[in-house]
Every structure is written in structure tokens, then in C-alpha cells.
Amino acid sequence: MSLPITEAPTRRVSILNAALNAFTTAGYGATSIEDICRGAPASVGSFYHHFGGKEGVAAVLYVEAVDRFQASMRAALAEPLSPRAMVSVLVSSHLTWVRDNEPWARYLLQMGSAPATAAAQPGVTNSNRALFDAVAAWSAPLVDQGVIVPLSPAALAAQILGPSYFASRAWLAGGPEITDRLIQQFSESAWRAIETPGAASASRLR
Fold first, then answer.
1. What is the mean pLDDT of residues 103-114?
2. What separation in angstroms does the CA of 56 have from each of 32, 67, 117?
3. Do the Cβ atoms of 37 and 121 come closer than 8 Å?
4. Considering only the top CATH level, what class is 1-52?
């Protein structure tokens, strides 16, 4: 399987690639440090030098996965798009990232509440803060103009991306495919969930 860490092939990157492969195929619990080192290849001493232990590499991978997942959404929020187009781009970014980056998406799903990734929390908090700050900067003028309903950045993100989250989980578990039609349907429903009802917003939908 081709893995998506594509930095210069340092020993650290090789270990991260091997860990992602092992964790998403065999599972975190069934993977030993020796398994990761064989896949890298790397010595056990090198592994401990870079990550300190299995939980260390799990935490680094988790922060990287969250940041990669959110990167396209943060970039989109800085673009001069219409409100409805922005919602569509956010939904599409979420679902296409999951579809196109299955190893990373599967790792996020598997390790989201695992004690092994507790050390990742500060990094995850920073990534979430950056995303919610971008959501706030985009949404505040639209709330003032009466275009979208007033919600906190976290609640607004949940309204827009909540269905995509559950569709992603279902797909990773062997459920329905993430199709372009599904993305379109979710984009339309996400817009309806946050638009301000009535004529005041109707002229700003397109």
C-alpha cells in the first residue's frame, strides 16, 4: 500500500510510514515496536530516539492526521466564495479527503478516543482552534448581515459537517460509497441547516 507521508525519506518519516501502515492494518494493540521497526526498516534504538515509545509515534501520527484533514478546509475558508459555495466546498473537502486518504481517515477513526493518543491533545487543540478561528472569521459578517443563523464556530462546523462525519464512518466500516451525488446532497442539506429563513437571505444564496 502506498502511504501518504511524502517528506524526504528520513528515518523518522520511514518509521511514521511503517507505523501508519501497521496500525491501520493490524491495529494499534496488535502492533509491536518490532513490527514497526521491521517495516521501516529501523533499529529499535532509532525508534525510541525519535518517538520514545509506541504511544509517542501514535500521538505524532494523530496530530498529523488531524492537521492534514483540516488543512483544505482552513484554506477554503480564506477564499472569496459565496456563502453557499463555501458550505459546498467545506462538505466536499471533508468527504473527498476521507475518500482519497483512507489510511489517514481510518487512523483518525480507530484512534480518536484511544488512551494511546492522549499526548496528542495539545496538538489537536491547536489544530481545532485554528479551524474554529477560520470559521469565526468567515461566519461573523454573514451573521451580521442576516445570511446565516448565529451559532458558535464549533456548533456551526457541526451543523455543516456532522452528516459528513457519520457518512465517513459508515464508508470506512464498509458502508455506502462516498459519491459525488452524496457530496452534493450533503452540501445542499448543510446550507439549509444554517441559512437564515426568509427573503433576507434568499438573494445571497447563489
1. 92
2. 13, 17, 8
3. no
4. mainly alpha
